[in-house]
Amino acid sequence: MERFGLNPQWNFAGFNMDALIGKIIQNPLFLRLKNVVENNLYHDHEDAYFHSIKTKDIALKEIKGDFISNPDAKNRFVKFTSEEFNGMKRADIMVLIALLHDIGKMLYVKEGNKTHSLLVTNSSSTTVCPGHEYWGSTIAAETLKNLSLTKEVIDYIAGIIKLHDTFNAEYWAVKKDWPMDMVINDVKSRAEGLYKEVLFNIYCDCFDAAPFQTAKAIIAKIFNEPKLYEKRQYIIL
Predict the structure, then answer these.
(1) Which residues are 116's β-sheet partners?
(2) Residue 88 pairs with which residues in a beta bridge?
(3) What is the pTM of this model?
(4) Phi, psi of 227, rounded to the nearest 5 degrees
């Protein structure tokens, strides 16, 4: 039962999380990620299938919150991830998001009589995959079909896939010298209110990437701030 690196006791609505992830990994759509080989500062000739599973494994470890040293902040993080959303714990959903965040990279683009991969290689042999976040969100439901997930859970997963590159390295490069209160205010204003989930996903997504280490350290500091977990509303006075 340890085949996919999950605790076999993780269950929701009568389903075993290990079995659920096994079905996703064997889905023909997901298997197409094996053919998507990336080469850039974040992926050294790495296929998207391997990267997705690796990101899931990182998320599974980090979802426990051990990277948060502030006891108050960690308690708030664990409380948030332990909440139920349509019959599933957010922690379980966030692991699924880590697995599926790059599903859009298997898509092709058809223009006129020509068809090419969404993943493109430039003259320096570096790959980019523009728009994979949004387009991945449009096929999330197809990937998760027949797994008895509710529409609300699938929409939640798709929404975070769409936003998963919101807090990329370029975002943090601009804010590296900002006061923490200003950074948290900016973070909480973005990602359509899903900032905790999106932050966690990018933290796991780029966990080992050399260009992301400064950003990763900032994100860890943010998760250590109890203020991050205070609920926010936008109102008209």
Answers:
(1) 109
(2) 85
(3) 0.93
(4) -60, -25
